[in-house]
Structures are given as C-alpha cells and as structure tokens.
Amino acid sequence: MKFYLSLLLLFASTHGEAQSCQLKSQEALGREVLDELTRNPINCDNQSIHLTFDDGPNPQVTPVLLKELKARNVKATFFVSTTNLEASHRSHETNLALVNETMNAGHLIASHGHEHNAYDLRMDGKGEVLEKGFTDQQKEQQITRSVQLLNYATQNRFSNQKPLLFRFPYGRGAMPSAAELKRMDQQGTMRFQSRDYAGQLAEYRRQSAPLQILAGNGFSHLGWNNDSGDSSHGMGMPSRDVLKSYVVKNLKSMCSGNSMQVALFHDIKIMNTAAIPVILDIGKCLGLNFVSPKEMMSNSQSLVDRGVLIQKSKTLRAPADTLGELIATVTQAGTATPECPPEKDQTCYSEQYKRRYQECEGGASICLGGRWYSRQDPMILLNCNLKD
Ligand SMILES: [Zn+2]
Fold first, then answer.
1. How far is the CA of 68 from the centre of ligand 1 (A)?
2. Which domains does the chain carry?
3. Which pTM does this prediction carry?
4. Cα(211) to centroid of ligand 1, in Å?
C-alpha cells in the first residue's frame, strides 16, 4: 500500500484568515490552483456535490480514480457503458474486473445503456427527430443488455443495489426542452393536454417507452446539473495551463450552486486522473461536501424539483410487476423480429440453416432465451455448460 505524501499549504480564504489545505497528490497542479484561488477567492461553505463518471470503465483512468477517491473516502456513481464489457471488447476482462472493484469499493454502479447510441434522442441540433430509426424493442434491448452485463460483472449484485440508477446517453430522453416538446406535439409524435412545461414534461414521461421500461424495472433516472466540460477536451493529458483552468472552473461552478449538485465527469478522459485529486483536496478544504450516492438520495428533493432526478414512482404510467408486462404495453404490434418472437417461444431461428435452435444450441453463435450470442458472451458462459 502506498502512502501519500501530504502537502500542507496555507492560503487565504474568503473569510480573510489563513486556511490550510492538504494536497495528497498532484501537488504541483494543486499549488497552482491554490495560488489562483488565493488571488480570486471562492466560498464553498454549505455546498454539496455528488460526483458521477460516465462512459467507462477504462483501464487507464478508472483505477486511478478509484485509488484517489479511496484515499479521500469519497463515494461516487459510475454510469457504465456496457459495450466495454462485451466479449468482443479488447479490454473486456479488465473492464469486467473494474466494475466489480468499483462496486466493492462502495461506489454505486449505474447503467448508461449499452451502445451509447442516440437511441432515445428526440432531436438533433437542427430539431430533427432522430429516434424514428429505433424500434421500441431495440430501445428495450439497450436497457436489458446493459443490465445483463452489469449483473454478470458483479455476480448479480447490480440489480440489488439501492438506488438503481440509469442515465441516457447524452442525458437526453428524460429532460426534453420546451421547444422539443412543442415540436413533438406539432409533428404528432406525442400529444399533450397540458399547456405548461411541467405538465407536458410529466405527460411526456408517461408516454416515453424507454422511461416506462426503466421505471418498471425499478430504475430512477439521474441527469446532472453541473457539467465538468471534460467532453470538450481530447482523450490525452492536456497542458498544465489547460488543466489548471479546468480545475479552477470546476471548483468555481461546484461552489456556486445553492443546494445539492450532481457533477458530470467521464472516466475515459485521462485529464481527470490529475484533476479529480486536486478538485477533491482543494474542494474539501474550501468546505465543499462530497456526498455519497446514499446521502444524495436521502437529500434529493431539490434534485427532484429541478428534474435532475426522475424517480421511478413519479414516472410510471401504471403499476407493473414485470418487464414483460410493461414491454407488452409499450411495444407496438409488428415490431418483433422473426428471430425473437414475443410469445413463449424461446428458440432462435437461423436464416442460414432455415431452422430453429433450442436453448444453448448452435454453432459459432449460441441460442439463449430466443436470442443469438457469441460463444464467449458472458450470458453464455454463465448459463450454458458448453463442451469445447
Ligand atoms: Zn455518455
């Protein structure tokens, strides 16, 4: 185990008195940020922030973040993109282990969907509806496949977590703007009775197939109200100047809210391996309170009021016990593919051989529950006792 060299630095707080700040790592960057904040002080008293990391895991970034968070006893939420866990992904074994390690460290594992497709985007920048290319069944698979892989990675502990959180790719789909809602109404994609935004948003959520599927499976949707801005940076490590202004910008915005904030970061961006330790150390000594998923949920009213957290109970159109029941209500007739009939038939059809295969039969591809998987797929390894 490595012990951090602690660096205790004095700087002037907004109250005028000298304040000490312990830098556990990234000392050089930390000193530059402290210099900047001594010149332009900020006040973080009574500010609470919950850190979230999207799109990972990533073998270069996630382990560093886990180590730095552990050293400061901060718990975060990791919204995993589960294509990173597919057998075909070059780092899938490392990534599966990282998900497990993240959960064992006390962080919340959450789903960011499977392919990071814009499968629930309603509009692009020009206001065009993008979702028409995706069937309800395809959208549902983005959720169920993600849940399968997260349960596989965590030995089925994923689905037993509280809370169960999901974040749509790009955060879209849960919080359309007033203009987007208006356009949906005009184009007839959805019809709204309410005239005000809040009412239309509630109606939208009751008509959104993916939101209904999520809520029916116990998921609440968590967006964010503090964007770190790391998406606008490249994958590599930026210059020291860029890093410094990135850290200062984030500390300023984290300290400028007046209640709970949820911060969006990405654990695929190498810059966060340097920035997060400094944000944690300096944020803490400025009075910023880094809250765990549990603390966030027990004090979530302001997040609910601002639509950052969409609770499952507030989303669901009608009580439904099973995924199947919900899918039956939201899947329109005629969208099912011949490979996966909606009835009880759990066989798979092969177009090549013009025949149906039973569970765990097949060649290079194996049939399970009415779908084809590769021989190396976690679902096959878990459920099928294949002879080589
Ligand atoms: Zn993302």
1. 22
2. 44-173+208-315 (3.20.20.370), 338-383 (no CATH)
3. 0.82
4. 17
